[in-house]
Amino acid sequence: MLASSLFRGASRLGLATVNRNMSIVPAYASYNNLNITQPSEYVYNLELNRPKKMNALSMEMWGEIGDFFDKVGEDTDCRVVVMSAAGKMFTSGIDLVDLGDMASIVYSEDDIARKCTMIYHKIRRLQKQFSTLEKCPKPIIGAIHSACIGGGVDLICGTDIRVCSADAWFQVKEVDMGLAADVGTLQRLPRIIGSQSLVNELCLTARKLEAAEAEKVGLVSKVYASREEMMTGVLEMAASIASKSPVAVQGTKMNLVYSRDHSPDEGLDYIARFNMAMLQSEDVMKSAMANMDKTAPPPLFAKL
User: Fold this and answer.
1) Taking the CA of residue 275 as centre, how many other CA atoms within 13 Å lie in the half-sphere pointing to its CB?
2) What does the pLDDT look like over 17-31, one tens digit per residue?
3) Interatomic CA distance for residues 195 and 237, integer angstroms
4) pLDDT in tens, 43-91
5) Which end is more exposed in the chain, N or C (fewer Cβ atoms within 10 Å of the end residue's Cβ)?
6) Do 169 and 210 touch, CB atoms closer than 8 A?
7) How far is the C-alpha of 244 from the C-alpha of 287, rounded, in Å?
8) CA torsion through residues 38, 39, 44, 46, sign
9) What is the 3-state secondary structure (H, E, C) of the chain?
10) Annotated catalytic sites, by residue?
């Protein structure tokens, strides 16, 4: 596959060269802080692209992330998104310049009620940008290398699958900045890891969570020896998912997200109502026929 052949040469050519060999997706070429490429059919790679700023999450980048996931949810040429990063690290967290803009509101002479209203709406806008990852029906695979700090943890908590390279580490840094994390970590991380005690420790101490421990506690599902091996593996995984019925894949994600936030009985009712329509899809018969005839070529599914 294209994805595999490109990244097997990564250690020899360098990731930057390999990324240039991928096809840029024209619909998203206007972004200043993201590279959107298509390494293989139906697979998009979103790459955080502020390497000179350690991929610090500026307000512009934040907005571009939200805009992309809003649009790609309806993009029939995409079935899976890989989220990676250019440069030496995944992200250093929120851009401190933009954090300074928030401080300018706090220390202004405006009425406190009006300052509170401005801050509230600003935080809610940022939250909504990262919540687009969960609302996007396409599966999102986070591929993390080196540091993933502060807002970066908020960001990856919205992905569906997370993998990392052996040099990766994660840090909920906000308490060291004098604030509580407010863009998703405190709400999503406990559901991902499952240990409230460990979540409390990580969020209250701001200690680093190294790759091996992150895999052990379930933050990531796999650790690769190197960044190059990670990208090869993750693009192969994405291509495998993209080859399956988009009706089945998107329906599975939607129901996983719904069931996480509802009781088992509510989740069962939701999937019953979902499948009373989707079981009538041509994809069901195509998949069934392919499973019965092992010599037949893999089924091809229409765009969704």
Assistant:
1) 12
2) 345 457 899 999 999
3) 28
4) 999 999 999 999 999 999 999 999 999 999 999 999 999 999 999 999 9
5) N
6) yes
7) 9
8) negative
9) CHHHHHHHCHHHHCHHHHHHHCEECHHHCCCCCEEEEEEECCEEEEEECCHHHCCCECHHHHHHHHHHHHHHCCCCCCCEEEEEECCCCCECCECHHHHHHHHHHHCCCCCHHHHHHHHHHHHHHHHHHHHHHHHCCCCEEEEECCEEECHHHHHHCCCCEEEEECCCEEECCHHHHCCCCCCCHHHHHHHHHCCHHHHHHHHHHCCCEEHHHHHHHCCCCEEECCHHHHHHHHHHHHHHHHCCCHHHHHHHHHHHHHHHCCCHHHHHHHHHHHHHHHCCCHHHHHHHHHHHCCCCCCCCCCCC
10) 94, 151, 154, 174, 182
- DSSP β-ladder status, 161-165 and 147-149: unpaired
pLDDT in tens, 95-135: 988 877 777 888 888 899 999 999 999 999 999 999 999 99
Question: For residue 102, which phi and psi values (nearest 5 degrees)?
Answer: -65, -40
Selection from 54, 60, 68, 55 nearest residue 25 by Cα: 68
Residue in 17, 163, 167 with CA at minimum distance from that of residue 9: 17
**Nearest partner of 73 among 162, 139, 7, 152, judged by Cα:** 139
- Interatomic CA distance for residues 44 and 67, integer angstroms: 15
Q: Specify whether the CB–CB gap between 245 and 283 falls below 8 A.
A: yes
Phi first, then psi: give them for residue 144, nearest 5 degrees: -110, 130
Going by C-alpha positions, the residue among 244, 239, 300 that lies closest to residue 2 is: 239
Q: How far is CA 43 from CA 47, 155, 202, 248, 260, in A?
A: 13, 20, 33, 16, 26
Beta-bridge mates of residue 37: 24, 45
